[in-house]
Specification:
Blueprint: E1 3-5, E2 14-17, E3 31-32, H1 34-42, E4 46-58, E5 61-71, H2 85-91, E6 105-109, E7 124-128, H3 129-135, H4 140-143, H5 156-163, E8 170-172
Parallel strand pairs: 1-8, 2-5
Antiparallel strand pairs: 2-3, 4-5, 6-7
Length: about 190
């Protein structure tokens, strides 16, 4: 369970919300460093929703650091997610599709490349190193290792829903109205 901080987290990042006030992403959580946030405020690209108590100053300006911002322009989330190692691991819940382990995760070609398998959403699965080595260049049935879920191309929405199962280690109290994890406040 993540800790909810009443003091700003290290580096004072801001939670970035889309124009509809939903986080741009849950995993990783959409956070910007305070320097980028101040620049976006000056460029009039974001609205400040909540602030930390800390103030930044220049010779002619001072402002409280934003802790939650919302983009003024809506960013569409309906494009297909990028095919990356991280997104494959996220799709599979950071667990081996053969044994359920969350240790030493690797890519596995369900249909081996040597047998015509392609590197694609529908043929790559998360496997732990021991299972990947055990399966080797064999077909799943031949190795006696059938994936517990079929590898498919996820939507961004599906990845976001899966990502909500993995809250970060810390959340600032000003972020809680915009995030949907069941957590308890700790000081």
């Amino acid at each position: 369970m993540p800790e909810v901080l009443t003091k700003p987290p290290q580096g004072r990042p801001a939670l970035v919300l889309n124009a509809d006030y939903r986080p741009l992403s849950y995993y990783p959580l959409s956070l910007w460093p305070w320097q980028d946030v101040v620049k976006a405020v000056f460029l009039d690209r974001v609205d400040i929703i909540a602030e930390y108590d800390q103030i930044v100053r220049s010779p002619s300006f001072e402002m409280r650091l934003p802790s939650v911002i919302a983009l003024r322009e809506f960013v569409r989330q309906d494009r297909s997610p990028a095919f990356t190692r991280f997104n494959v691991f996220l799709r599979d819940g950071f667990q081996c599709v053969y044994c359920g382990s969350d240790e030493e995760l690797t890519f596995d070609h369900v249909i081996p490349r040597s047998k015509g398998g392609r590197t694609s959403w529908s043929n790559i699965a998360t496997a732990c190193s021991p299972c990947n080595l055990k399966k080797g260049g064999k077909m799943p049935a031949e190795a006696g290792m059938i994936p517990n879920r079929k590898p498919l191309r996820p939507s961004n929405y599906q990845l976001q829903e899966i990502g909500r199962r993995f809250p970060p280690n810390f959340l600032h109290e000003t972020w809680m109205d915009y995030l949907y994890w069941d957590v308890e406040l700790e000081s």
